[in-house]
Design a protein that fits this description.
Two copies of one chain form a homodimer.
Chain A (H helix, E strand, L loop, with lengths): L4 H13 L2 H15 L1 H22 L6 H15 L2 H37 L2
The structure holds calcium ion (2 copies).
One calcium ion (CA) binds next to helix 5 of chain A.
Chain lengths: 119, 119
């Protein structure tokens, strides 16, 4: 019997919530946001990152100066241990999420390539 | 006990494969690709669509002429019943996928908003 996709998706939501990756991220977020200075440092860094991403996505040119400025900010911010750990945890979480997506999207990918190679 | 996220993701992969949405899409793809003329019509349409998407994502301007050309192609292509049905099935599938993603990403969204509103 096929399980309903949404029921299984809710199971996956629960599994994500109970994963070490998520719990670790949660703990580190709380740590960073508990201290006003660390929080501001992190949010400042996050804003610079988002700005560059939006520029890139909209096809705007990113100047050499902006790249250097962003690199300096990363270097400074990573000297804060709580933030460095949080950034690592975010990377691990985002790797997990992209692997989960790859697994779930496999039927569709196979469908496209099967149909195409049969013709 | 927490389930391993990857085990649950594989369950979701199976559930997607066994869903009516997926099976319907599979049947309609085979139908469209079984006929050379219909297949070419569909692939031509798909290529125009992808080209416009890539232009948009890279921040290039899309001309009025290109929009009109794309609209004409959609109108022509949708007169083919097999293709029209396939396009509908793709839309239903993509709605399902985006709902699944929303469910799975909920813990992360809640994490960000909880941490932020607490400060
Ligand atoms: Ca082919
Ligand atoms: Ca806040």
């Amino acid at each position: 019997m096929a399980n309903n996709v949404y029921d299984v998706a809710y199971n996956l939501e629960t599994a994500v919530k109970e994963s070490d990756e998520f719990k670790n991220l949660q703990t580190l977020y709380k740590e960073v946001f508990a201290d006003e200075t660390t929080k501001n440092m992190f949010e400042n860094f996050r804003n610079i990152q988002l700005e560059l991403q939006q520029k890139q996505m909209s096809g705007q040119e990113i100047t050499q100066e902006e790249v250097e400025q962003a690199q300096k900010t990363v270097a400074v911010v990573q000297q804060n241990e709580a933030i460095a750990k949080l950034m690592e945890a975010e990377q691990r979480m985002s790797m997990m999420v992209s692997e989960l997506n790859k697994i779930i999207m496999k039927p569709l990918e196979e469908l496209y390539s099967d149909v195409d190679s049969a013709n």
